Amino acid sequence: MESTAHLRYIRIAPRKMRLVANLIRGKKLARARMILKFTPNKSTESLLKLIESAVASAQHNFGVEETQLYISKIIVNEGPKLKRIRPRARGKAFPIQKKTSHISVVLAEITLPSGADKEQRKKTEEASTIANAGAEGQESTAKKVKKIRGSGAKNVMNHGYREQAEKSKQVAKKIFRRKTG
């Protein structure tokens, strides 16, 4: 199921419109609305109205809930240019092109393949077991670090860093040997 909406001859340059359109391509509707709401561009108002129109047509024609829709395609094409002239010095005239845009939005329904619920459950279970194992591993490494620190290895570690710092200073002295006078 796909629902489309078109907005034509809008007086915003397609290059500027594409900047905002790229932000919401592939996003769910709620996320796209939030992005458009907080993006400070002139083109966000027209894109928001266009998305609302596409949602309304999807609900009317297919009876789909808003939460099940995402923006599958958003295409911004160049419309005709309004040609104007700006007067310049010595009777010359410079052309001005006021660009227009054509926008098409395609909303699609989010569908999970059959058996996806089982796969998602397995993935979440695996992730939780990995997280638990990782937490246990962190505790054991923390204990090891405490043991090492208690044994006086701290001085050895700092000494290694000091050696590296001294080497880098020596390299810098070799490179910047400037003799003045």
Which key terms come to mind for this protein?
alpha+beta; Ribosomal Protein L22, Chain A; two-stranded antiparallel ribbon; about 20% strand
Description:
The chain has 181 residues and is α+β, with helices and mostly antiparallel strands. The chain has 2 domains: 2-109, Ribosomal Protein L22, Chain A; 116-175. Helix content is 54%, strand content 22%. Strands 1-5-2 form a 3-stranded antiparallel beta sheet. The protein has a two-stranded antiparallel sheet with strand order 3-4. The radius of gyration is 30 Å and the shape is flat. The relative contact order is 0.14.
What is the CATH class name of the largest domain? Answer: Alpha Beta
**Mean pLDDT value:** 82
How is the main sheet built? 3 strands, antiparallel
Q: Please give the order of strands in the largest beta sheet.
A: 1-5-2
User: What order do the helices and strands follow?
Assistant: EHHHEEEEHH
State the separation between the terminal residues, measured CA to CA: 82 Å
CATH level 3 topology of the largest domain: Ribosomal Protein L22, Chain A
CATH architectural designation of the largest domain: Alpha-Beta Complex
The CATH superfamily of the largest domain bears the name Ribosomal protein L22/L17
Overall geometry? flat
Q: Could you estimate the helical fraction of the residues in percent?
A: 40-55%
